[in-house]
Amino acid sequence: MPEAESELSSREVEHVARLARLGITPDEVVRYRDQLRHILTAIDALKRADTSKVPATAHPLELRNVMRDDKREASLPAEAVLKNAPSREDSYFKVKAIQ
Amino acid sequence: MTFYQRTIRELHQLLVDREVSSVELTESVLGQIDAVGEKTKAYLLVTRELALRQAKAADDRLRAKSDVRPLTGIPIALKDVLCVKDVVSTAGSKILKGFVPPYNATVVERLEAEGAVFLGKTNCDEFAMGSSNENSGYWPVHNPWGLDRVPGGSSGGSAAAVASGEAVAALGSDTGGSIRQPAALTGIVGFKPTYGRVSRYGLIAFASSLDQIGPMTRDVVDSAILLQAIAGHDPRDSTSSAHPVPDYFSTLRNGVRGMRLGVPKEYFVAGMEPAVEQAIRDAIRLLEQQGASIEEVSLPHSDLALPAYYIIAPAEASSNLARYDGVRYGYQAEGARNLIEEYMLTRQQGFGAEVKRRIMLGTYALSSGYYDAYYLQAQKVRTLIIEDFKQAFEKVDVLLGATSPTVAFPLGAKTQDPVAMYLNDIITIPANLGNVCGISVPCGLADGLPIGLQVIAPGFREEVALQVAYAFEAATDFRKLQSPLMRGAAA
């Protein structure tokens, strides 16, 4: 129900948190629901602006595809890239099982 | 005057004349960090050994008179969102605690090539999200003009460092006002260049279509020096512009005679403090006395800038911050039973409240059923803001207004009300969305707290913003105002 913007529900907050891969406690669901409702109400003017004839700006610069020559260039050594990894095995990032 | 109180330009002369060595100068600044650092909490990390090593190398260059540049030997602070190779860089976030970048940001490389001295990483709001520095994942920063006040944000540590003598100059980043607003609140000069003017390579991303790195300095000349060093195309950032970088000094002192200065009536917002409004009106009058013509202009969609920003910036942030998953770097939660749970716990424990709020707001605005109503609509409003600026700049050379509607507010005053906090950026956000450049320059005090005048120039016309800001600064004594901490008094 796209019309119900300022009536964000707890279920929607839980759904959004899940989409964002953000763990959230029941207390936080209520707090974020109320805060996000408040923010959405404060920015409600956005929805009233007449933009029927206005194109969207996704990016401020008029860029075309930026290409470079297909040449091999130096890159970081694997060790430098892996040194910040919380868990690793050999030259791999180690992750938990995907369920 | 003690060395740490001086400007880049003055110190450059002293260094070249061998009146001071870079090591002596660096020790002077490090001494001031020792003296007041516990009061401002401006730094997350002081890189004392690196600084002294770089200072020695700079002294060799100065002694040999080989490749001496304007920043050779000058001690500079870097906002913690900038990656410095082998130096812990956290963006003010617990989720990046202990992260050691394997490469340098381009701006860091450019300053290194100049022979600059790196004092350390300055505190900031987590991932640059905030207007008071109270969203730092580590600790808040205190304003050198009054320690019970915020320094502004998100580049609050850089601002406090420059205003307290804990750095001669600093780099900040500005997505919705994060250079200009803290500059205004701490009585220094802060310049947000046009998006694309400075490479973002190695800047820890917040909102990629808005973020821009820029100088935070004691005066406008120093701002020009620092911008000159960091501006220009970088093949590693395809959004950095190939637009030529002019010599900012060739026009800096041309004055404002004959220039047309626009005053957007919408920038005198409701809730603006009377003392701030008075200082801005006085500043405008002073520029008129310098020979400029003043014209009231209208940017009719200004009131939509804040709402559009609080969709676009969180939407981009929610995407950018997806990378913090506890796998490749940064914090990883313990005790998860599977990968998804590890993501959820890592992000729950690693991110602070404001970052989570914006990730959720952005995810919501991008989610199925709301995309058109929020994100697409905000992008269309962004077009309207761009058009507003285009039309105004057909009539005038620059736009003038306040940087912040208020002076520095007390710590804790707005932390419980996100919307009240967002309103701090109401006059700075349009320049980010409209892709123009803006500089904040000190224009007075109210009850002992600094006020900033904002000068906005068209995209890639940084030299025009600098010229007007310099004319104002040169005609006043505001640049001589020093914070109590800088003067060695109690704040």
Given helix and strand content, the structural type of chain A is mainly alpha
Integer-rounded radius of gyration of chain A: 22 Å
- The run of helices and strands of chain B is HHEHEHEHEHEEHEHEHHHHEHHEEHH
The overall strand count of chain B is: 11
What global shape of chain B is seen? Answer: globular
Query: In whole angstroms, how far apart are the ends of chain B?
Result: 19 Å
CATH fold label of one domain in chain A: Histone, subunit A
Describe this protein's structure.
The complex is a heterodimer of chains A (99) and B (491). Chain A is mainly α and 99 residues long. Chain A has a domain at 1-49: Orthogonal Bundle (Histone, subunit A). Helices cover 36% and strands 4% of the residues of chain A. Chain A is built from 4 helices and 2 strands. In chain A, strands 1-2 form a two-stranded antiparallel ribbon. The two termini of chain A are 31 Å apart. In chain B, strand 7, helix 8 (274-289) and strand 8 form a beta-alpha-beta unit. Chain B has 2 domains: 3-255 and 470-487, Amidase signature (AS) domain (Amidase signature (AS) enzymes); 303-379, no CATH class. Chain B has an 11-stranded mixed beta sheet, with helices on both faces. The longest helix of chain B has 25 residues, at 371-395. With 491 residues, chain B is α/β, with parallel strands linked by helices. Classes of the chains: A mainly alpha (99), B alpha/beta (491). At the A-B interface, helix 1, helix 2 and helix 3 of A face helix 9, helix 10, helix 11, helix 12 and helix 13 of B.
Question: What secondary-structure arrangement, pairings included, does this model have?
Answer:
The complex is a heterodimer of chains A (99) and B (491).
Chain A: H1 10-19, H2 26-42, H3 45-48, H4 78-82, E1 88-89, E2 92-93
Antiparallel strand pairs in A: 1-2
Chain B: H1 8-16, H2 22-40, E1 43-46, H3 48-64, E2 75-79, H4 106-114, E3 117-122, H5 156-164, E4 169-174, H6 180-186, E5 189-192, E6 212-217, H7 220-230, E7 260-264, H8 274-289, E8 293-297, H9 305-320, H10 339-350, H11 353-366, H12 371-395, E9 398-402, H13 418-422, H14 429-433, E10 437-446, E11 449-457, H15 462-474, H16 484-487
Parallel strand pairs in B: 2-3, 2-4, 7-8, 7-9
Antiparallel strand pairs in B: 1-3, 4-6, 5-6, 5-10, 9-11, 10-11
Helix pairs in contact in B: 2-3, 2-5, 5-6, 7-15, 9-11, 9-12
